[in-house]
Amino acid sequence: MTRLLRNPKTLLFLIIALSVFLVSLGGGALGNAFNGGFLGSPIAHIQLPAESVLTDPLIGNFYLTNTMLATWLTIAILLVLSLVATRKVSIIPGRLQNLFEVLLEFFLNLMESIAGPENARKFFPLVMTIFLFILAANWVGILPGFATIGRFEPGDEVIHHAEVKAEKEHSHLNLDEVQLQVFDGNNGVAILPFGSIESVITGREFEEHGVDSDRRAGLLVPFLRSSNTDVNTTLAIAIVAMLMVHYWGLTSLGIFGHLGKFLNFKGGPIGFAVGILEAIGEVARLISFTFRLFGNIFAGEVLLAAMAFLLPLIGIIPFLGLELFVGAIQAFIFAMLTLVFASLATISHNSEEH
Amino acid sequence: MEGNIQDLAAGLAIGLGALGPGLGIGILAAKAMEALGRNPEAAGLIQQNMILAIAFAEAIAIYALVVAIIIKFV
């Protein structure tokens, strides 16, 4: 350790890292308690449902949400990458082709060891697509610009929306619970500011005092938000996965073979109860698929927002690394579970009796 | 004492919900270390499977977190 510290380069790096960390600590929420807080971005507005990018619905009751835009962006990135990778397929692969070949071969080998060579080739397209899509969506979702650049929703509109929501729930709106952020400038696009944390005001303060004329109070509605923070996206992937699992079960076991697992009349009362339990298990799988991915990615977003509040700019970097890891692990788990469920569905329950 | 009963509910949801997965992850890691001690050559395989299993256990804590977030923010 002492020899390491004597190395001037290491020492310089350590000193810089430490000072940068102290600056970020002092500039953040802790510093704000002692009148520092020069870096502190205000704590992000956490909202569960995806926000609409446009103020009006696109068609009828259909809103263009920011998670949908992020999903389209992910699809576009995947399309362009795979087109570029397969444009000039050669025996001696180029860099990008090589990357994809390594990834696909790794997965195919893994799947063959789990499901057997024949089934692995049948399941491969769906499992690999799920993996690539979720991985790309999670990694795109932590790029800068996500959840920080967006439409500005003025304060009176925010209060109006909250009132409408409270009326629907037959409760009374408490203006102290409505939080607004103060932004500089007056144009329509807002960027999460590097201001003081004090630039968060409640709805009552806004109604009574207003804000300075060169500022505006309201909320940021981001244009892009990580697609898996919307439960609709994860539910859609889960439904596709489970539908395909049952399709493969039907084609490999036949209608009676597959449905006989859930409506089992041959095994007596105990067999019947087990079949019903299995049917409930299928629904539980769907729900657990949905909420595992959604929860992990949404919790990651909340964690990043909280860390940007506590340790702005620098302290957040390790957590970005953690999010990269979690995104990859969740994509892998989703793909592997689809594979395991599919290979379970193609095996007959009575196979050991025959 | 001031406060909303909702805040208490959210705190209890994640607090109790993290209890089980915390124990589970601890047991998982302990068993993996044990296996590592018995068979150091299988380190890569053990680590890979351990991380996968930990992610499953963690997912249950995440369900509790989702419930807590829903209680708090919706």
Order of helices and strands of chain A: HHHHHHEHEEEHEHHH
Main beta sheet of chain A: strand number and arrangement? 5 strands, antiparallel
Mean pLDDT of chain A: 81
- Strand percentage of chain A lies at 5-15%
Main sheet record of chain B: none
List low-pLDDT spans of chain A.
Answer: none
Greatest contact pair? A-B, 17 and 14 residues
- Work out the helix count of chain A: 11
- Helix fraction of chain B, binned, reads over 70%
Mean pLDDT of chain B: 87
Determine the N-to-C terminus distance of chain B. Answer: 24 Å
Distance between the termini of chain A: 67 Å
Poorly predicted sequence stretches spanning 5 or more consecutive residues of chain B: none
Q: Which outline of chain A best applies?
A: globular
| Total number of distinct structural domains of chain A | 2
Identify the overall geometry of chain B.
elongated
- How many helices of chain B? 2
Cα-based radius of gyration of chain B, to the nearest Å: 17 Å
Structural class of chain B: mainly alpha
Known CATH architecture of chain B: Up-down Bundle
Q: Summarize the helix and strand pattern of chain B as letters.
A: HH
